Amino acid sequence: MPELPEVETIVRDLRKKIINQRIADVLIFLPRAVQGDPDIFVRILKGNRFSDISRRGKLLIFSLAKGADKLLIHLKMTGQLVYCHQGRLIAGGHSQADFDRHLPNRHTRAGFVFADHARLYFNDLRTFGYLRLASGQELARELDKKFGPEPLSRQFNAIYLARAAKDRKISIKGLLLDQKIVAGIGNIYADEALHAAGIFPGRAAGRVNARQMEKLVAASKRILRQAIKYRGTTFNNYVDADGQRGHFYQHLKVYNRADQPCLACGHLLRKTRIAGRGTAYCPACQH
DNA sequence: CTTCTTGTTACTGA
DNA sequence: ATCAGTAACAAGAA
């Protein structure tokens, strides 16, 4: 379940490893993981170099040294990008106890071989993730259309969120999960932010008051920053570019803690379904 | 066998 | 046109 902190961790790691390395070979193990013509995909990437790596919401964006195209990678729920030196093929993270720690394994969908023999593998158990080439213009149009502000930017503030929520009956959690409203928050961090702000996730967005909006925005930013610091949350599948787990899991206060005591008030946390997602909350401190 | 898991999009009906 | 709710997608785990 890579959300913003997990994707940000991967971006930062990969920047140190593969920038300006010549791409000697492109491996496609599952053709449908690559959107568009696989031959064109290979032709554009082979011999090229990644000149920069960035992220918008949960979407990874690889700029290329040659040509105007960008490589876009979305990890969806179970995608991993794991970098390996030659002879170091270890990747942990899948819940099945230590199965296939060698790469590529049966969940490896694509890969890049660099001139120094290092490799970057795209693994994806459930095959919802994808790799895609897009022109700069195509990408700009898509980002404009489908992505709201970054949650850690100044544009994401209480006034903005209150305006987006005005007169809307959708749950406040549903609003946070809508990537067009704010890009990068997923199920884990939505639950955590709402708990920290003391807001019931099912409350109609339009009925969250200004003071609560302030708390919610501040909590979202604080929690996302903290999660980046701990290199993300590994619940079952996520690993960073070195195949290592994230350590924010032990800082989660509500996600996956249903029936355990609220760390703020001691009341037992509950689990329900809101915005079509499993939702953990404290019935005593969230209203 | 059924139910649950999640990011995103398509679809449905209001 | 906009909004909100839900199914679908895949490959498992329990």
UniProtKB/TrEMBL annotation:
Cofactor: Zn(2+)
UniProt-annotated binding residues for DNA: H107, R126, R168
Location of the Formamidopyrimidine-DNA glycosylase catalytic domain: 2-129
Cofactor binding description: Binds 1 zinc ion per subunit.
EC number: 3.2.2.23, 4.2.99.18
SUPFAM superfamilies: Glucocorticoid receptor-like (DNA-binding domain) (SSF57716), N-terminal domain of MutM-like DNA repair proteins (SSF81624), S13-like H2TH domain (SSF46946)
Annotated HAMAP family: Fapy_DNA_glycosyl
Protein's recorded name: Formamidopyrimidine-DNA glycosylase
Native organism: Candidatus Falkowbacteria bacterium CG23_combo_of_CG06-09_8_20_14_all_49_15
